[in-house]
Specification:
With 270 residues, this protein is of the alpha+beta class. It contains 5 helices and 12 strands.
């Protein structure tokens, strides 16, 4: 029996996702009858009204409904500062798989600082070319301006075109906004992150809940509080992994560290 998954995407993400899910016996069926940009765009032409997880699930459910497949797959990415190191960029990807028959969702989430995400206001061709070099252009696409600008352009991947557009824009405005194009088909760095997310999804599809027997059972939380090896004060070092099922709420704690090094104890090292 062939398990088809309807993948609602218009940015070629299937090129990295399909080979991974094929190994688990799933065949991706591309569903293009719905414009995913209508749920929001990175550059803000269409505002995002759903959270990242909600948007990924919405795409998965739409894909299954439109194709009449049992399974649907949705993808959603976000970009911003690193959660701990503010000056570093961060790419967070979500893949949501929806099982219509069981009304069951599986989420694979992967975050990384391996991204070229960036933006800058420039006032010369030289500074624009410096930004382009930092962004690994033309291997990665660039965006010039904002949707409110007459010279706004996305998906620039040609050096001559980029230079011409920047010079034309600078004749209109003393400075222009540049940013990396984070759409997957124009951003190999993001595409690699989506591939890693698909690998996590593949592992979840092979991990079954001990109670309801549905796939997707996995790590949902790191439980802090391993006791200090000297004074036994709870530390920020994890003492266990919390594994949960999103369908039946079954939960297990998998012990990690019986004690924590004293160097990680706030009582011993205030």
């Amino acid at each position: 029996m062939i398990n088809e998954i309807a993948f609602l995407t218009c940015h070629q993400k299937e090129t990295v996702v399909a080979p991974i899910l094929n190994k688990q016996g799933f065949v991706l069926r591309l569903e293009k009858s719905f414009d995913t940009d209508s749920l929001g765009t990175f550059t803000g032409e269409t505002p995002r009204t759903l959270t990242q997880v909600q948007a990924a699930l919405k795409k998965a459910q739409l894909g299954a409904e439109l194709s009449k497949c049992r399974y649907g797959l949705g993808s959603e990415g976000s970009f911003g500062p690193h959660p701990q190191v503010f000056l570093m960029p961060w790419n967070l990807e979500v893949l949501a798989l929806w099982d219509r028959m069981n009304e069951h969702a599986i989420y694979a989430i992967f975050g990384t600082a391996e991204t070229n995400y960036g933006s800058e206001k420039v006032n010369s061709l030289e500074s624009a070319m410096s930004f382009a070099a930092k962004s690994d252009f033309p291997n990665h696409g660039l965006i010039l301006g904002t949707p409110q600008d007459s010279y706004f352009a996305k998906g620039i991947v040609n050096k001559t075109e980029f230079q011409d557009r920047v010079m034309a824009a600078l004749k209109i405005s003393p400075s222009v906004w540049l940013e990396t194009d984070m759409r997957a088909h124009l951003n190999p760095s993001r595409m690699r992150t989506i591939q890693h997310t698909a690998e996590k999804l593949s592992a979840l599809l092979m991990s079954y809940c001990p109670q309801c027997k549905l796939p997707g059972y996995g790590l949902t939380e790191m439980v802090r509080g391993a006791p200090c090896e000297i004074c036994a004060t709870p530390t920020r070092i994890p003492r266990a992994e919390k594994w949960s099922c999103l369908k039946c709420d079954f939960t297990e704690l998998h012990p990690l560290n019986e004690v924590a090094p004293a160097k990680n104890c706030d009582a011993c090292n205030p």
